[in-house]
Amino acid sequence: MLKNYLLVALRTLWKHKVFTAINIAGLAIGISASLVIYLLVQYDFSFDKFHKEGDRIHRVVSKFTSPDGEEYKNSGVPVPMGNAVRTEMAGLDVVAPFYTWDGSGKVTIPTAKEGKPVTYKKQEGIIFADPGYFILLPYEWVAGSPVTALQQPYQVVLTTANAALYFPGIQPVELIGREIYFDDTIRTSITGIVKDIAQNTDFTFKTFISWSTLEKGNLSNGNAETWNNTTSSSQLFVKLAAGTTVAKAEKDIRNLYNKYHKRDKDDNTKTAHLLQPLRDIHFNTDYGNFDQRTAHKPTLYGLLAIGAFLLLLGAINFINLATAQASQRAKEIGIRKTLGGQKIQLILQFLSETFLVTLLATALSVLITPLLLKIFADFIPKELHFSLISHPGILLFLLVLLIVVSLLAGFYPALVLAGYKPVLVLKNQAFSNTGQTRNAWLRKTLTVSQFVIAQVFIMATVLVSKQIHYAINKDMGFRKDAIVYFRTNFYDTVRSNKQVLLNKIAAMPGVAMVSLANNPPSGNSVWSSTFTYKDGKKDIQTDVQIKHADSNYIRLYQLRLLAGRNITQSDTATQLIINETFAHTLGFQQPQDAIGKTIGWSNKQLPIVGVVADFHQRSLHESIKPLAIANATDRALTINILLQPKTNAGANWSATIKQMEKVWKALYPEEEFEYRFFDEQIAKFYESEKQVSTLLTWATGLTIFISCLGLLGLVMYTTAFRVKEIGVRKVLGATVTQLVTLLSKDFMLLVILAFFIATPLAWLAMHQWLNNFAYRTGVSIWVFGLSAVMMILIALITVGLQTIRAALANPVNSLRSE
């Protein structure tokens, strides 16, 4: 029986080759997109799922609320909190503090090759950890013991990947006792080797120096004993004991913090320490995850929706074409029923045809998927690969998809076809008094649904591109072109070096101006502190972002002074320039009113000498915050350079940057020269939006393609079904234009109807997305108009090619048999 079903299915599909190809192409595209989306979503949701009792593992994070209600979140805690929690808190099975290395480190192997030291620069994944780290995380030990490996100062544990890198060809057990130097100052001895974690995890560290090394060497930038500073480098993980609630643990940590934290009398900032679940770390951008890629759950859910829509479009094509072909198979069904065929047998026959089409489409999608992964390689994690052998879950996913799509696309057409009455179909009355040939309401509904989805995608793509263009080209309140910047060596003990570097660069002919500051006007790195202003009635406390800069800073970045003057040069802070927002927060109606007033900060009373126009300190996602520019260059490490105008070939910029590198190497021969163009750094604020735009563009193209495939199939069927009508009309004098209009009218009305349905849906979705930006473009009418024009033109081309061909056909051929 099954063999008979498949043979009949193959013959039927071969007989209708064009429609079969359309169905296979539509379903293959939908299944390929769904497979790529499944791989990405499954990859992100698999992070750190392998931990035993992972629901009891949490990270302690910090949330600060300023007196004016602004919230600031930090993934770190005060450095001494880890030891205090371990010794004074009950209800915890594991306490694991660790401290991440600031930036990349330099690793030296003193006797690695023929007695000569070998140095590895820019080494990532270095942390200071205590034995609790290896109790919390399931590393497999190759050499050494987790109990003793990190007990003493200046001990280090390596993963097998780093062990093979630093000591190629040496067995792990032979490495115990070997020495490694970090940044030429920290001399450690290897006490253990562990295997790298094979599963997907955010814990990608590869070198573990004992926690006591951090304490003994005072390597935490002076934070080892203070509870007043919080840095994201200081991480604290805990595993709750059975029966301990999150609320109780947070309360105990709060009490512990209040016990040791010495609050400044002018500091009214509220501090809370919360427990962040392990499963949340990979998805929470508020706290981040150790400078690794974070996933965005709404984006993942949006991807799932796109995959579902593309699959739905392919299924709609199948339903449309199968029901459109119903009249051609009516006699076949009538004869089958007359010969004793049961309804269930007919349903199984038609479902087998659908299954065969879906199976072919699935096989084709397996070939297409690697190509799609290459196309989207820019924003698909490099660890994500398509392999049926190493990912058996893919086979299960494809099997489920095969069954679901077969039922979704084939069940309704099978019911329709199997439901014909043999008496009527054999008398050519299968559609008598049903109106199916005239209204075809189901096909019209499904076609409208396809074009609603397509037009929503078009509108979303146009608006996302519009917002990105707006964000990148908006005046952010400062100059951003022709500026490069780089940070001087943080570990440099010779204070005069940065001034020597500054002076030599300023003397270069390709440089227009230089400035020393802690950061450019806008960036991801933010310094903030509490400022206090006494207005005679009350104390106004405000959390303020701080820029340390010299007097060239305002001129180089062309910040606009609204009142007062520029700051003067100084090593320590003696003057402040504030922005408009800060002036208004302090209660000044006009910028001039703030000049001469003093503000308390860091145990000093500093005068306000100027007010600058507001500029964006971060991306347009965030509102402008109160800001102060202090004339303190002792803490400024970033050199900002305004280049001379670029020549046609840009050779002058390249030559100037090479000169800078030469000067840098003269002072820091062992360090790499790394610079950034300021405008490129600003553009990186919107990388995720660009990725969304790319994804939407592809989704829109695929949606339009699948929809047009279905439309083309319907037009081909309609013109074939009405071929005699077209012949009669031509004989009676109808022109080609009239025939094309007649055949196209119904389809174009469906596209227009889809536009009116899609417009409010798209507006709601786009309005919600734009709410992610504090500053955003408007939802212009032309966005909807452009979508309508594009869709109508595409539909006209699809319909027109086939209808013109039908209208130009010789009527003799169609009427010969009459």
Automatic annotation (TrEMBL):
Residues 20-256, 452-633 form the MacB-like periplasmic core domain. InterPro entries: ABC3_permease_C, MacB_PCD, Macrolide_Exporter_MacB. The chain crosses the membrane at residues 21-41, 300-323, 344-373, 393-420, 441-464, 695-720, 747-769, 781-801. The keyword Isomerase does not apply. Residues 305-419, 701-809 form the ABC3 transporter permease C-terminal domain. Its main location: membrane. It is found in: Cell membrane. This is ABC transporter permease. It comes from Paraflavitalea soli. The lineage of its organism: Bacteria, Pseudomonadati, Bacteroidota, Chitinophagia, Chitinophagales.
